[in-house]
Design a protein that fits this description.
about 350 residues; alpha+beta; Rossmann fold; OB fold (Dihydrolipoamide Acetyltransferase, E2P); 2 domains; 6-stranded mixed beta sheet; 5-stranded antiparallel beta sheet; 21 strands; about 35% strand; molybdenum; Mop_domain; nucleotide-binding; cell membrane
């Protein structure tokens, strides 16, 4: 049940969105790009709030837009969470939620009582939106979107106006919803670290055009991807907890048969974790250091070396079936005489443990 897009849409100031893509009908797809790249325009076209100039939109084989058809928003069964919540100010939280429930064209993906408990809404029901914090408003907006029984959930930078704690709480709730419900989600953001914690699939937009798309994990480690050339470039690794080192308050995570140490986690052995490793924090050694303060040293194979004339270059390093990135100086690469296929060791200065549903913010 994919979302098939082939659209052209004009905007203000001569802006044009031109996009063709088949978005997976499962998991979380992130639309990532700078401001003005067309992310919100794309969501509005999918939702039916904006009519493209031409093209087609199909969801699950059902035509939503074509030359002779434009299905109205209320028939598309889409939930939409905006950056600014957009709650009805004259209705209480209960009224906002009931408005969506009474107009639902199907069964919500989660029972109402369970939804209230998951989102922490029960104590907020009698309150008006003006009395809520930004984080509380977004939780209500998410609840309202889900009670509308959507077949697809759209989220347009829902964390942009939240403080760090509220952002972490809402992100954890979205992760829980994504893991528990069979509900495809499209998530817009210009923050790659935020995207890294939630998305399975990624579309890169710039100037109204699709620059690249694919699995998030694969795109983050490809040298030909724009992500690899951003200052905050980082590879993502999937691993699982293999042991707890209570003596030093560390947790051991197994990635492709190798061990990475992170700060202690209150989770059972076997729990899956996603790790983000910045390219700038990875250095290369020909032999394994025996007297280094760095704990995380992995045997890797040089799979690709960036060709450049600047001071720094990127390496793509294979670790089993996964990949790391390393940003080193061109002089260092020359001094080590690095070649594709070389077996080397990656010293990892820092490992960012990405948050998961259930983590404490």
């Amino acid at each position: 049940m994919s979302l098939a897009l082939d659209i052209r849409c004009s905007g203000e100031g001569g802006f044009k969105l031109r996009l063709k893509s088949d978005i997976p009908g499962e998991g979380v797809t992130a639309i990532y790009g700078p401001s003005g790249s067309g992310k919100s325009t794309l969501l509005d076209c999918i939702a039916g709030l904006r009519q493209p100039d031409s093209g087609e939109i199909y969801f699950g084989g059902q035509c939503w837009f074509a030359a002779d058809r434009n299905t109205p928003p209320w028939h598309r069964r889409i939930g939409y969470v905006f950056q600014d919540a957009r709650l009805f100010p004259h209705l209480s939280v209960a009224g906002n939620l009931d408005y969506a429930r009474r107009r639902a064209r199907g069964s919500p993906p989660m029972a109402q009582a369970q939804l209230y408990q998951t989102l922490g809404l029960s104590k907020l029901l009698p309150h008006l939106p003006a009395t809520l914090s930004a984080g509380q408003k977004q939780r209500v907006a998410i609840g309202r979107a889900l009670l509308g029984a959507p077949r697809l959930l759209l989220l347009d930078e829902p964390l942009a106006n939240l403080d760090q704690q509220a952002s972490a709480e809402c992100l954890g709730l979205l992760q829980q919803i994504a893991s528990e419900l069979e509900l495809p989600m499209i998530y817009v953001s210009h923050d790659i670290e935020e995207v890294s914690q939630l998305a399975d699939h990624l579309l890169l937009l710039d100037g109204g055009e699709l620059q690249d798309e694919g699995s998030l994990l694969a795109l983050c480690s490809r040298l030909d991807s724009r992500l690899a050339h951003e200052e905050q470039a980082a590879a993502l690794l999937q691993g699982s907890i293999q042991a707890q080192d209570d003596t030093f308050s560390l947790t051991e995570i197994n990635v492709e048969g190798e061990t990475l140490y992170v700060n202690h986690l209150q989770q059972p052995v076997g729990s899956a974790r996603r790790l983000r490793i910045p390219a700038r924090d990875v250095s290369i050694c020909r032999s394994r250091p025996e007297d280094s303060s760095i704990l995380n040293i992995l045997p890797v194979t040089v799979e690709e070396i960036e060709t450049c004339r600047g001071a720094r270059l990127l390496l793509r390093l294979r670790l089993g079936e996964q990949h790391l990135l390393a940003r080193i100086t061109r002089k260092s690469a020359d001094r080590l005489a690095l070649q594709v296929g070389d077996s080397v060791f990656a010293q990892i200065k820092s490992v960012a443990l990405l948050s998961e549903a259930g983590d404490q913010p």
